[in-house]
Amino acid sequence: MLRILVATDCHLGYLEKDEIRRFDSFDTFEEICSLAVINKVDFILLGGNLFHENKPSISTLVKSMEIIRSYCLNDHQVQFQVVSDQAACLQNRFGRVNFEDPNFNIGLPVFTVHGTHDGPAGVDGLSAIDILSACNFVNYFGKVDPGSSDVDQISVCPVFIKKGATSVALYGLGNIRDEKLSRMLQTHYKIQWMKADSEDDWFNLFVFHQKRRKGSSTNGINEQLLPSFLDLVIWGHEHECLIDHQEVSGKDFHIIHPGSSVATSLSNAEAKPKNVVLLEIKGMQYKQTNIPLKSVRPIQYAEVQLKDQLGVELNNEAALYEHLDNIVSNLIDKTAISGSEPKLPLVRVKVDYSGFLTITPQRFGQKYVGKVANPNDIILFSRSAQQNRTREHTGGSEECEPNELDQQSIEELIAESNLILDKNDLDSALHDFVNKDENMAFHSCLDKNIDAAKKKLTFATKDLKAEEDIVLQLDQCMQERMNEDPLLSKGGSEIMPCSQSLPTNALSAFQELKCSSNEEQDTHESDELIEISDKEHSQQASQKRPAPVDGGSQSSRRKTDLSSFYRTAPSKNNDDGGKKGKAPADMEP
């Protein structure tokens, strides 16, 4: 039997600057590792978003590596084998799982894919998980360049694991933009699922990190798009913990939602109890056991509509304050506190204030400092969607809430612009710049497109010899680049408003540059001739003077200066240089 502990969305480093909640993610991750040791699992499987940021702080990296080192590095014998081509499925320079390295004692292996927060970014496409992989702490698989427009196909290579008579094909796919992955799943042969050549029965386990949209293929992944040969799917990114596995109509596989191990938003879905999953696989059968997490900070969530509450008047702020105070106090009293060091609870009350006055949430929360972990955002005021539509139809001029404003996605902003760069690359660069704080994202995008143009030009001009032919080929390459994007062909004049003042094509630009270079060269040579003529004139005048009485030291010094001058004079070719550098006849010794 193969025993696996499954966890997703650990978000290490979340709110690390908060004095109260800074250690929450690390406490829960350490509990997850301790549960793996207690239950004697074969390995830990993480479903993405191990880190909350693509570039975590040094403190976050140190704490994470200390936890992994404490629980995973020991002399315990690993009871399973990896029989697949490890270099094809593991993205590291060593090309093997960490527990097969003779220089390390790995007793509890960790397999992980990247998520939306800790995905690869930058010029080299690296993330914090690559640091752990380079240190031989985790086995990083399922890595795909999420923003590359050159990747037309994806090959998902599984990690083939054997333990006795149990054979598991572990498929992994790191986060890719939902729109791109959805299109690839709907197109045949865009994603190649590598399968085992042997006739053994393999249990196909797939872990990935995407937004889920049931029955829809827009703004998320529809479970109907996944291949039918899978047996079990571990779905990361969704923070809601769904205890029981879910069946998919028309498919033979089940879906497990472990949910996040730490709450990153105060919502009803996050308020549910947090669990990890102990997965036991034997042959083609599996068993799911949910293990509650005890180190998670308790959350109390409630929704209130003021129009349905008794004793709350429209313009009575004191009555509203007292009513909300009673609700929050009851939620705090319901929080079950256990353990020697109890944690302050998180409390969120979502208030629909349609038609009522509001109070300042920060002022309201001052009373609960030391009683809750989030005193500044206990109350969240919102307005019902029906009230919003009424205000819109009646032409109300009341100030809108931030969540009511019309917002455009990054993809929509890029689609409205006329771009010379590849739209997919620029879309990915903008995502990395905004979501992953990657300052070099646009620089990497520009370098990538320049390199692609250079490679295309080099391949097309291998047999060309004349410089004019190369420039013509460059002009043709630029024209093809413009024709590939319909927006560029339609709006080319809008992209380059000053095009009338530029050369008509690359050849004319090259000819102008060549003419200007020749003029500079002629000017430089004429300056050299003028300088030589001036010196010759001065030397001829000096020869007419009487020689000095002391043996002609002035003549010898003048000859040394002339030879030094002619040695340093630049020459364009050997023939002309010899004629220009030759001294006059009456100057030779």
Question: Secondary-structure map with pairings?
Answer:
Elements: E1 2-7, H1 24-38, E2 43-46, H2 58-72, E3 81-82, H3 86-89, E4 110-112, H4 128-134, E5 139-140, E6 154-156, E7 159-163, E8 166-173, H5 178-186, E9 191-193, E10 203-209, E11 232-236, E12 242-247, E13 254-257, E14 275-282, E15 285-292, E16 299-305, H6 317-334, E17 346-352, H7 361-365, E18 379-382, H8 385-394, H9 410-415, H10 423-435, H11 441-460, H12 467-484, H13 486-490, H14 492-495, H15 506-543, H16 553-568, H17 574-580
Parallel strand pairs: 1-2, 2-4, 4-5, 6-9, 8-10, 10-11, 11-13, 16-17, 17-18
Antiparallel strand pairs: 1-14, 3-7, 7-8, 12-13, 14-15
Helix pairs in contact: 1-2, 10-11
Task: Write a structural description.
- By secondary structure, the chain is α/β, with parallel strands linked by helices.
- It has 3 domains: 2-292, Metallo-dependent phosphatases (Purple Acid Phosphatase, chain A, domain 2); 300-382, 2-Layer Sandwich (Translation Initiation Factor IF3); 410-458, no CATH class.
- The chain contains 17 helices and 18 strands.
- The protein has helices at 24-38, 58-72, 86-89, 128-134, 178-186, 317-334, 361-365, 385-394, 410-415, 423-435, 441-460, 467-484, 486-490, 492-495, 506-543, 553-568, 574-580; strands at residues 2-7, 43-46, 81-82, 110-112, 139-140, 154-156, 159-163, 166-173, 191-193, 203-209, 232-236, 242-247, 254-257, 275-282, 285-292, 299-305, 346-352, 379-382.
- The strands form 4 sheets. A 7-stranded mixed sheet has the order 3-7-8-10-11-13-12, with no helix packed on it.
- The longest helix is centred in the C-terminal third of the chain and has 38 residues, at 506-543.
- The N and C termini lie far apart (102 Å).
- Mean pLDDT is 78; it is low at 390-407, 491-504 and 544-589.
- Belongs to the MRE11/RAD32 family.
- Keywords: Chromosome, DNA damage, DNA repair, Endonuclease, Exonuclease, Hydrolase, Manganese, Meiosis, Metal-binding, Nuclease, Nucleus.
- Its main location: nucleus.
- One of its GO terms (cellular component) is site of double-strand break.
- Residues 514-589 are annotated as: Disordered.
